[in-house]
């Protein structure tokens, strides 16, 4: 079994790694670290989130930087502020016993003047979000002329968030003679463009997501309608006494609706999506890290960069549209060798999608089973009894003896066992009720046996769908003009989600939105002509996942 010392790292860096509790390198670390230490070459590394990418590029970068030279030698681009802070924190921990490497992180939503002052000290490594770095470049407040190494961390996410032009500009601003290390979960067309234009004969490292996604993670599913999902989540959290879980939703609108429903159900919940200010995001993340939130409800992009230990549960309110989204989501739990559970809620029509996801990732989805409540209570029993002793001591000091004697007389007809049962029920009765409620979910067969409905059911469903759509306008219907919108499947949008989004944004009844067609990067929809003025005005200035929303009339007949 390879250890970190076997990868060619210096003893002081290995000392810091061991102090942090890391023992065995992950697959991406075993592949990338020795190569980057021994070679001056560009690389493309395909690996999912949660696989140890930060150490894979961060440790070699720390070893290669010359701390005796006062200029910026390393640049790390990241998609989000949270990820930037996380990378900076880890690099500083890795360098705890090593040479004095100066590291700074710059991002939007914070004082640019403070960041400019920090950059005047010429940090050896700069970690930056593309937008803020472009601002600093335009102001001529950052010197990248001596950069030897550029790291693109989660490059696919930066492209998804609309940073392609910024990345092009930044790479063109850095010296031609440099090494570029590109780390991405997927090899999309945009990633290939960057690799072909800016990387020189890169060495390729590919860690199969199917080999890493299920390490330490239990994958489960619950088949139920949307209306019961909030109650099920509430009961799971109650039984597990879980804090710090994450619930993923597809859209901003869904996250707000579900978050409100969970709050109404008594779950301490906070919502995180792209529509919030940076100050709000920081406040929510601070509470989340301090375990003051039972459940964080988040969209995929808003959750980027979250790296919090001991997340026991990841819930998927619906099945994600693609494999990468599920891998990123489930990777929020079972980090650093711990265990966790990823639960997917599905409807009957989602069975084939889930089966396809399982096949592609080579993982097994099992019907969710609630842990035995008796086992949980046994684990909590000693702490509870110790707590009772403290309560008894306080009560004896507060309550007059004549009161306790009077109560004792009135309780004489109860047996000792009856009183104990009542006491236990007062403390743990809600757990038993929650388990009973979850037990009412109809048990499903194992995932390998789950199939679609019977043939006659499918014919019936298709017929009803056709009958519902029989009065839908055709593409050229003048009473329902057709529109283009630059939102698609890459934004985790379904037809229903897009209808809800447009309806809420423009104040249009959903029944007046028809013929929705969704593609990967964009969609089309038709709207009752009496609402056409609202479409343009309501969408102006709106941002989705970090990019400007664009809506135009579709002129194709």
Describe this entry's structure for a reader:
This protein is an alpha/beta fold. Strand 18 and strand 19 (547-548) form a beta hairpin. Helix 11 (229-240) runs antiparallel to helix 18 (416-439). The longest helix has 26 residues, at 373-398. It is globular and about 90 Å long. The chain starts with 10 loop residues before the first helix and ends with a strand. Its EC number is 3.6.4.13. One of its GO terms (biological process) is ribosome assembly. Residues 445-480 are annotated as: Disordered.
Radius of gyration: 27 Å
CATH superfamily of the largest domain: P-loop containing nucleotide triphosphate hydrolases
**Order of neighbouring strands in the sheet with most strands:** 3-4-2-5-6-1-7
Percent range of helical residues? 40-55%
Family: Belongs to the DEAD box helicase family.
EC number: 3.6.4.13
GO biological process, one term: ribosome assembly
GO molecular function: ATP binding; hydrolase activity; nucleic acid binding; RNA helicase activity
Task: Provide a short characterization of the protein structure.
This protein has 557 residues and is an alpha/beta fold. It folds into 3 domains: 4-207, 3-Layer(aba) Sandwich (Rossmann fold); 213-367, P-loop containing nucleotide triphosphate hydrolases (Rossmann fold); 470-553, Alpha-Beta Plaits (2-Layer Sandwich).
Please specify the SSE layout and strand pairing:
Layout: H1 11-19, H2 27-38, E1 43-46, H3 53-64, E2 74-77, H4 81-94, E3 103-106, H5 112-119, E4 125-128, H6 130-138, E5 149-152, H7 155-160, H8 164-173, E6 179-184, H9 189-198, E7 203-206, H10 209-212, E8 217-223, H11 229-240, E9 245-248, H12 252-264, E10 269-272, H13 278-289, E11 295-298, E12 313-316, H14 323-330, E13 340-346, H15 351-361, E14 366-367, H16 373-398, H17 401-410, H18 416-439, H19 455-469, E15 482-485, H20 495-506, E16 513-518, E17 523-527, H21 532-539, E18 543-544, E19 547-548, E20 551-553
Parallel strand pairs: 1-6, 1-7, 2-4, 2-5, 3-4, 5-6, 8-13, 8-14, 9-11, 9-12, 10-11, 12-13
Antiparallel strand pairs: 15-17, 15-20, 16-17, 18-19
């Amino acid at each position: 079994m390879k250890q970190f010392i076997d990868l060619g790292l210096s003893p002081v860096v290995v000392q810091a790694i061991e102090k942090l509790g890391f023992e065995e390198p992950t697959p991406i670390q075993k592949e990338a670290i020795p190569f980057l230490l021994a070679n001056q070459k560009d690389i493309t590394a395909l690996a999912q989130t949660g696989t140890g990418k930060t150490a894979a590029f961060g440790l070699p970068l720390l070893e290669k930087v010359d701390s005796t030279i006062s200029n910026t030698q390393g640049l790390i681009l990241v998609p989000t502020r949270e990820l930037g802070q996380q990378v900076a924190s880890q690099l500083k921990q890795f360098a705890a016993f090593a040479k004095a490497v100066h590291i700074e992180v710059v991002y939007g939503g914070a004082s640019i003047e403070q960041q400019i002052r920090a950059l005047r000290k010429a940090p050896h490594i700069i970690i930056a979000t593309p937008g803020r770095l472009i601002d600093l470049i335009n102001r001529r407040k950052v010197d990248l002329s001596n950069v030897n190494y550029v790291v693109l961390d989660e490059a696919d996410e930066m492209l998804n968030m609309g940073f392609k032009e910024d990345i092009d500009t930044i790479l063109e601003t850095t010296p031609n003679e440099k090494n570029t290390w590109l780390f991405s979960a997927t090899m999309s067309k945009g990633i290939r463009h960057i690799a072909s234009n800016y990387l020189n004969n890169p060495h390729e490292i590919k860690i199969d997501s199917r080999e890493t996604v299920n390490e330490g993670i239990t994958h489960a599913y619950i088949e139920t309608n949307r209306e019961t999902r909030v109650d099920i989540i509430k009961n799971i959290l109650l039984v597990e006494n879980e804090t710090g879980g994450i619930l993923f939703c597809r859209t901003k609108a869904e996250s707000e609706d579900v978050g409100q429903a969970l709050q109404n159900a008594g779950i301490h919940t906070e919502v995180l999506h792209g529509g919030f200010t940076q100050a709000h995001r920081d406040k929510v993340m601070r509470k989340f890290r301090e375990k003051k939130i039972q459940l964080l409800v988040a969209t995929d992009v808003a959750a980027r960069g979250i790296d919090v230990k001991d997340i026991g549960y990841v819930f998927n309110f619906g099945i994600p549209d693609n494999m990468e989204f599920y891998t990123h989501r489930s990777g929020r739990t079972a980090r650093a060798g711990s265990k966790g559970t990823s639960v997917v809620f599905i409807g009957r029509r989602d069975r084939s999608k889930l089966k396809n996801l399982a096949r592609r990732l080579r993982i097994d989805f099992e019907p969710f089973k609630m842990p035995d409540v008796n086992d949980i209570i046994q684990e909590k029993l000693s702490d509870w009894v110790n707590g009772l002793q403290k309560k008894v001591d306080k009560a004896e000091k507060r309550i007059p003896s004549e009161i306790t004697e009077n109560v004792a007389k009135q309780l004489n007809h109860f047996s000792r066992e009856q009183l104990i049962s009542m006491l236990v029920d007062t403390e743990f009765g809600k757990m038993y009720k929650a388990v009973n409620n979850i037990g009412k979910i109809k048990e499903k067969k194992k995932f390998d046996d789950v199939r679609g409905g019977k043939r006659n059911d499918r014919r019936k469903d298709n017929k009803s769908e056709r009958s519902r759509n029989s009065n839908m306008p055709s593409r050229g219907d003048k009473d329902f003009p057709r529109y283009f919108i630059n939102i698609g499947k890459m934004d985790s949008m379904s037809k229903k989600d897009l209808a809800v989004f447009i309806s809420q944004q423009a104040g249009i009844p959903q029944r007046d939105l028809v013929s929705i067609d969704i593609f990967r990067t964009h969609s089309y929809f038709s709207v009752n002509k009496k609402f056409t003025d609202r479409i343009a005005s309501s969408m102006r200035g709106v941002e989705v996942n970090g990019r400007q929303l664009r809506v135009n009339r579709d002129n194709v007949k």
